[in-house]
Design brief:
Elements lengths: L2 E6 L9 E5 L5 E7 L10 E6 L5 E3 L7 H10 L9 E3 L2
Length: 89
């Protein structure tokens, strides 16, 4: 069973939320609720942060939302310049 830890609560839609998921084997993936850059009721883009030898982001958000992504990364102890790989699904 996956353990879920809320690292920072965002708004009611999930914008600005930081989450850590940990597998029973101890593997951890963090998630940033990156707000859309326009007014929407759909909620955030969930950017998954994979920490290891390289820093990988999966689905970092849309055009115009980089400041939100940067803020979330900083709160997780990373900078935008430390990202080695970006995966867009």
């Amino acid at each position: 069973m996956l353990e879920t830890e809320i690292l920072k609560k965002g708004d009611d839609s999930g914008n600005g939320t930081l989450i850590k998921y940990t597998s029973p084997a101890g593997a951890a993936i963090k998630a940033i609720g990156v707000p859309q850059s326009w007014k929407t009721t759909l909620g955030p883009t969930w950017c998954y942060v994979i920490e290891g030898d390289d820093l990988t982001l999966i689905d970092p958000g849309c055009f115009g939302s980089v400041s939100y992504l940067e803020e979330g990364l900083e709160q997780l102890g990373h900078s935008l310049t430390s990202v080695d790989r970006v995966v867009v699904s």
